[in-house]
Amino acid sequence: QFTGLGNCIATIFKQDGARGLYQGFFVSIQGIIVYRAAYFGTYDTVKGMLPDPKNTPVVVSWMIAQTVTTGAGIVSYPFDTVRRRMMM
């Protein structure tokens, strides 16, 4: 359908104007806010519950980060779905 990035941008701009290039933008921002809030809020809370948060082994910090990342992704995924549908 498109020959490259520039062609894609030009085609969307010709068909829908500048508004077409930013379709789904505000839902993206909301999804990012939800993701970051879930990530940092949960990570800091869990890390603070450890007996000695400043001397946490790297493996434990990594496991917490992976779990929190997965949870934040699950919570924010509906925003990504809405964003994609709005762009179509």
Automatic annotation (TrEMBL):
<feature type="repeat" description="Solcar">
    <location>
        <begin position="1"/>
        <end position="49"/>
    </location>
</feature>
<dbReference type="GO" id="GO:1901029">
    <property type="term" value="P:negative regulation of mitochondrial outer membrane permeabilization involved in apoptotic signaling pathway"/>
</dbReference>
<feature type="transmembrane region" description="Helical">
    <location>
        <begin position="59"/>
        <end position="79"/>
    </location>
</feature>
<dbReference type="GO" id="GO:0140021">
    <property type="term" value="P:mitochondrial ADP transmembrane transport"/>
</dbReference>
<dbReference type="InterPro" id="IPR002067">
    <property type="entry name" value="MCP"/>
</dbReference>
<dbReference type="GO" id="GO:1990544">
    <property type="term" value="P:mitochondrial ATP transmembrane transport"/>
</dbReference>
<keyword id="KW-0677">Repeat</keyword>
<keyword id="KW-0050">Antiport</keyword>
<comment type="subunit">
    <text>Monomer.</text>
</comment>
<dbReference type="GO" id="GO:0005471">
    <property type="term" value="F:ATP:ADP antiporter activity"/>
</dbReference>
<dbReference type="InterPro" id="IPR002113">
    <property type="entry name" value="ADT_euk_type"/>
</dbReference>
<comment type="function">
    <text>ADP:ATP antiporter that mediates import of ADP into the mitochondrial matrix for ATP synthesis, and export of ATP out to fuel the cell. Cycles between the cytoplasmic-open state (c-state) and the matrix-open state (m-state): operates by the alternating access mechanism with a single substrate-binding site intermittently exposed to either the cytosolic (c-state) or matrix (m-state) side of the inner mitochondrial membrane.</text>
</comment>
<keyword id="KW-0812">Transmembrane</keyword>
<dbReference type="InterPro" id="IPR023395">
    <property type="entry name" value="MCP_dom_sf"/>
</dbReference>
<feature type="transmembrane region" description="Helical">
    <location>
        <begin position="21"/>
        <end position="39"/>
    </location>
</feature>
<dbReference type="GO" id="GO:0005743">
    <property type="term" value="C:mitochondrial inner membrane"/>
</dbReference>
<comment type="similarity">
    <text>Belongs to the mitochondrial carrier (TC 2.A.29) family.</text>
</comment>
<comment type="function">
    <text>Catalyzes the exchange of ADP and ATP across the membrane.</text>
</comment>
<dbReference type="Pfam" id="PF00153">
    <property type="entry name" value="Mito_carr"/>
</dbReference>
<dbReference type="InterPro" id="IPR018108">
    <property type="entry name" value="MCP_transmembrane"/>
</dbReference>
<keyword id="KW-0496">Mitochondrion</keyword>
<protein>
    <recommendedName>
        <fullName>ADP/ATP translocase</fullName>
    </recommendedName>
</protein>
<keyword id="KW-0813">Transport</keyword>
<keyword id="KW-0472">Membrane</keyword>
<keyword id="KW-0999">Mitochondrion inner membrane</keyword>
<keyword id="KW-1133">Transmembrane helix</keyword>
